[in-house]
Amino acid sequence: MTIQDNKKKKSWKQLIFRLLLLVLNIIIIIVLYVLLTDFGANPLIIILVLSFVFLIFLGPLLRGRRKSLYASMFPDKKKVQKEKMQKKEEENKRREEMRLFKMRHLNKIDLDFEYREPIIRKCDNCGLMIPKFAKKCPICGK
């Protein structure tokens, strides 16, 4: 028996199980409807109760892969560590690429430039930062 045959058997078993659950759901809904109408319940309440029961049974039928609540709240530590390691490797790879990029382009930088006067200067008297074009300091007037 191959793996594919085993999967086909499982899928047929799952299909039969789901059909049985669906039939059981319909039977329970019919019984509940009869009981609620005999009891004399409000039609709105009957509809709400029957839809609730139908949806409760419909959930497991439609859900494919089962994942427990615990597994969704507390992920696998090995998987989380593996993801962290992958992120670190990607970060290291990116840093190495940036380092190589900088090394390649560092030689192209021209350091031959002329010195210019600063745009902002400091007042000699009070120490206030003033623009270059100002004739006097607005605080001390020097």
Can you tell me about this structure?
The model has no long low-confidence stretch (mean pLDDT 80). The chain is 65% helix and 4% strand. Strands 1-2 form a two-stranded antiparallel sheet. The chain is mainly alpha-helical and 142 residues long. The termini are far apart. Strand 1 and strand 2 form a beta hairpin. It is built from four helices and two strands, in the order H-H-H-H-E-E. Helix 1 (3-39) packs antiparallel against helix 2. It has helices at 3-39, 43-62, 69-73, 77-106, and strands spanning 120-122, 129-131. The protein folds into two domains: 8-64, no CATH class; 97-142, no CATH class.
Low-confidence parts lasting 5 or more residues at pLDDT below 50?
none
**What is the percentage of strand-forming residues?**
under 5%
Distance between the termini: 99 Å
Strand order within the widest sheet?
A: 1-2
H/E order of the elements?
A: HHHHEE
The secondary-structure class comes to: mainly alpha
Radius of gyration, whole Å: 38 Å
The whole-number mean of residue pLDDT values reads 80
Count of the domains: 2
Total strands: 2
In short:
The protein is mainly α and 142 residues long. It has 4 helices and 2 strands.
